């Protein structure tokens, strides 16, 4: 029987606990998922490690925006890998691009070497490359174990045909992790029509803030987001995805 993987992206202790309750195999830990994720704090990692037994892959991204980093940003990225490796993280999720839209092979090799024994995933920087098949082969050369992708589209359902091809070309060499817009129904569809075996989702719900006093007309961040709504993973949504995978294994 094939090995199936359910990965949940989280940015809080509460979400990590919910992911484990729902049956996720591992979490991708980040900060600021609302902007695609940035590097989390070491204290967040440590608290989740204390309160769960789930594997933790740490997303490392020094800032919002593109994946073409300055020398200072690259130094930070490399140092973060070393810090989380020494702290016992199970994996890191990374990606660097050159100006021409190809993987920055020189820098990526440095980061993979720094990761040492940890599992290394290439995040959706892959979806911003100019040629997905060239990038797949480069990732194989680097020894990367997982590629997170939406098939070069905004969501995985939109990129389904490319993902199907990537899974076939990846074979047993590298895990193609289907992400973006994924839920139980999407997983069911992919398991029926493709050979994909790894799925990435947030399983999020919006919770109402417990604040009674609410300041009007002041935003702490993105003006379209309310400070009085909390986005958090739901164990029920993760369990729905888990149940679909378990019921449709090939």
From TrEMBL:
Q: What GO CC terms are in its UniProt record?
A: cytoplasm
Which SUPFAM superfamilies is this protein grouped with? CutC-like
Write down the superkingdom of origin. Bacteria
**Is Transmembrane helix among the key words of this record?**
no
Record keywords = Cytoplasm
UniProt-recorded Gene Ontology molecular function terms: copper ion binding
Location of this chain's protein in the cell: Cytoplasm
Task: Report the CDD domains cross-referenced here.
Answer: TIM_phosphate_binding
N-terminal signal peptide: none
Concerning InterPro entries, the annotation shows: CutC-like (IPR005627), CutC-like_dom_sf (IPR036822)
Q: Which HAMAP family match?
A: CutC (MF_00795)
Q: Which PANTHER family match?
A: COPPER HOMEOSTASIS PROTEIN CUTC, COPPER HOMEOSTASIS PROTEIN CUTC HOMOLOG
The UniProt entry's sequence similarity note says: Belongs to the CutC family.
Q: What's the protein called, per UniProt?
A: PF03932 family protein CutC
- Tell me the gene name: cutC
